[in-house]
Amino acid sequence: MTKKLTNAWIIAAVMAATALLLLALSFIGYRGAQPAAAPTAAAKAPIPGQPTIAVPPTPSANLPRPTAAAGVATPVNKVAPATLPPGPGIPPLPGDKAPTTSPTGLAYIDEVVGTGAQPAITQTVVVHYTGYLENGTVFDSSVKRGTPATFPLGNVIPGFREGISTMKVGGKRRLIIPPNLGYGDRGAPPTIPGGAKLTFDIELISLK
Q1: For the chain, which terminal residue's Cβ has fewer other Cβ atoms within 10 angstroms, N or C?
Q2: Structural domain includes residue 133
Q3: Per annotation, catalytic residue among 108, 164, 183, 202
Q4: Is 110 one of the annotated active-site residues of the chain?
């Protein structure tokens, strides 16, 4: 009798263990069939060393726009010269000589050809001058001040520099300077308007 009871307990234990095993296997299979969880922020982060795709920046309205071809300067809008009131007019030179125009557009008339040295761009010159606007208004004059002007030739407007550099000491010359060789579209307010053509009467006194 005792032996039969022992066998029955063994059979019951084996059946219970088998049932538990089957239940565990079915639970594991159910969990494996579940959809994967959404990746976290850490999982989405790029792995160091791997290339990423950069998004092109939005162009700014303040950035300079490219020109049609490399090295081609963008044209600058020209400013029309200010309307000048009637003036006394530029005094004519004796002899009514026609001006000579250089390749740069500078026009000049030699009233007196000097016999002294010709200045180098690196030198300092001593000159008397009178500057006129197109209506004949005098905007500057060392003659009126009674004192010659002394300045390094390389530090003046291009038309003034070019015109004096081909003179000789003792010479007198009239320069007719276009805006691009003078003060350009900005001018030199308040005496010289933008886009002004200037006329200078110059006497080259000496060099330093």
Answers
A1: N
A2: yes
A3: 183
A4: no
